[in-house]
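User: I'm writing a tutorial on reading structure tokens. Could you give me a worked example: one chain, its sequence, then its tokens, then a sentence or two explaining what the tokens reveal?
Assistant: Sure. Here is the example chain.
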Amino acid sequence: MVHDSIMSAAELQALIENISVDIDRQKEVLKELELRKIAAQRKFNAIRDPVGRMPLEISSEIFVLCLGRLPQPGSLHPPMLLLNICHVWSAIALSTPELWSRIHVDGNQGYKLPTLLDTWLKRAGSRALFLSFRGSFHMDTVAVIRRYTRQVQELATAFEGDELRSIIVEGELPALKTLRVMGAYDTSEAIDILRLLPHLVECSFDDLTADFLIPEMLVHPQMQHFELGGNEKILSQIRLPGLKTLLLPMSYGDSSNQFLRDSLPPLRSVTFGWRPWTANEMEECFSLLPKLTHLELSNTARPGLNTATSLLVTILGNSPHLLPNLSSLACQFGSFKPDNPWYSQLLNMLLARRTKMKVVQMVMDLDRIAAPPSDVCAALRQLVADGMVIHIGADGQTLM
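And here are its predicted structure tokens:
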């Protein structure tokens, strides 16, 4: 062997090259061993992981149950969280289109939102989409949304600006069944939207305002659930003959009776907000609702509803032919302080309807009211023992 001190430059160069070749060879060996280790670890994890041993349809269903109704993007929230657990869980998540068919996004989620949203929705495949948007969105994000509008079955929006608003107005949602509009609209805009979406089954407007335009009357036979916040002028301009659920929790007008007379919908559930009822108006309203099973009076900040609740109890007790199928009744009180006669009227109404009535909720401030008389309490408890659910009091507190 030639001693290192007397090796020529050429020999040193050859030695360096040979050592480099050996190092590269060892690197390849190490890389191969690392890959084999990873593969063995995955198999070991799959054997040890109960989720990995399950059939895909079962593990997928478990993952779907982890989701909220409208999951948000982010590594700390499912379904994206599931991608970070292990290879097996990631493979299951990516093989489950339903995990990616729902999403809630805010306009302030940054410049990466268009790419994230596109990747998310592609994973849903051809599944129906359930989307929720809040805020103002860049046109790149709107362009992504437009690529998937034919799959959108449910849409909730709180618009800032006209970008997403245009998607509805231009009628690009042929599969849409449920729409919730959380932004401010006027009556004519709302009717234009309903006219463009004749296949809607559920719709809610959180903040409608009246305008001076009087659009052409709209008949929407497919609508089954309609919720309205704000001005109820729209009820005079639409007919919903297939309606089963009507919610007017913030109403303050008297358009509902005319709407019911003109539409004659097969309503099963109705919620009314504050309005200055008269006995005749309430009786007429109830006569138009023969199939109703649930009735609620809400938004009791105004004391006028307390009179309405007293009317309600009296009319239901004296006229059992009205609302013959009513099984659930809920009332929320403002400053109302029920007296002994009111409790007696309530009991008489429940006794008259005991064969149908199953659930009664009278929500009121316990600090402001007295308990029912002892004989009324005893009779109410007997109704409870017979199977009726009765709640009198505030949330988390009850006299009954």
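What the tokens reveal: DSSP finds 13 helices and 14 strands in the chain. Residues 13-44 form one domain.
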